[in-house]
Design a protein that fits this description.
Structural class: alpha+beta
Radius of gyration: 21 Å
Distance between the termini: 9 Å
Number of strands: 19
Strand content: 25-35%
Bound molecules: zinc ion
Shape: globular
Largest sheet: 10 strands, mixed
Length: 348
Amino acid sequence: MALPTVDSDFLLSFLSALLNTPSPTGLAEPAITFTEQALMAFPELTLNRNRKGALVARWLGESSDAPRALTAHADTLGAMVKQIKADGRLMMTKIGSYAWNTVEGEGCKVLTSHGQPLRGSILFEMPSHHVHGTKVNETRREDANMEVRLDALTISQEETDALGVRVGDFIAFDPRVEITSGFVRSRHLDDKAGVACLVAAVKALHDAGLKPAQTTFFHISNYEEVGHGAAAGIPADVTELLSVDMAAVGEGQASDEFHATLCVKDSGGPYHHGLSEKLRQLADEHSLPYKVDIYPYYHSDGEAFWRAGGDVAVALIGPGVDASHNYERTHLDALLATTRWVCAYLLS
Ligand SMILES: [Zn+2]
């Protein structure tokens, strides 16, 4: 059976808009809502939220004797206001795992709980070559020496407080989305690229008048970056869970930005061999460009469901993303390969 055509313009425009929707873990609601609204275009889907805030879409399949689920996450790395400093700048605490130098110099939005959103920049507290000399280069970046410089008139704790900033307010990093010659450069392709592949796969089947072979749940996770996203929200009668999340590209890795990858092992150990083999066979059958890889420092929502007691086969596929948890990049080839792989799985 030939795979349905994937609308690559739709894929890229949905992805670009999703990337531009701030959604640090803990405040991923805007990205969940954006995805929900996109899925409302497909009346075959029944849309629900679980109490934790994840989106769960059900599509009745040709059969319902072995239901399946796919998950991708809409939450991203970010930060939270830890303390308002005496000079009015903000100390931060990280949300998710990353190094401070990967966001140093980045623009950000402080989503204030008691005022309007504020613009600012993530800076090292001794940022100026002309003032701090060699300290700029020689100091290790830590929670205690990184700060937000607000684009607002404040030089005191009281003035920042008056702007509506409070301890616990979320900070979203500018994604800086740019699409050039098929390359998609942005923060948070992890895992908004995966969400876009799922939505584009649903659209491809819908446009072709097809439906999944089995009743299928699409779980759009909102707590993956802190390790427990898909611990809840996957129905208990599901037999297989396919996690769609970025592939780790770099030295020693088989993955690249032009292929989808099947991850057979990460920090959580090996994935389900039978389901992984089935995905390999599907990729071979449809001549999809794919790699098989192992990720050294990586956890997935598939693992989260396993650790929460999920009794299912779990596998992981996704597009290759360069410089992950940094200023990331992938290519349309990898996005299309992943989307077509998801289509093949849904129809199998
Ligand atoms: Zn991810």
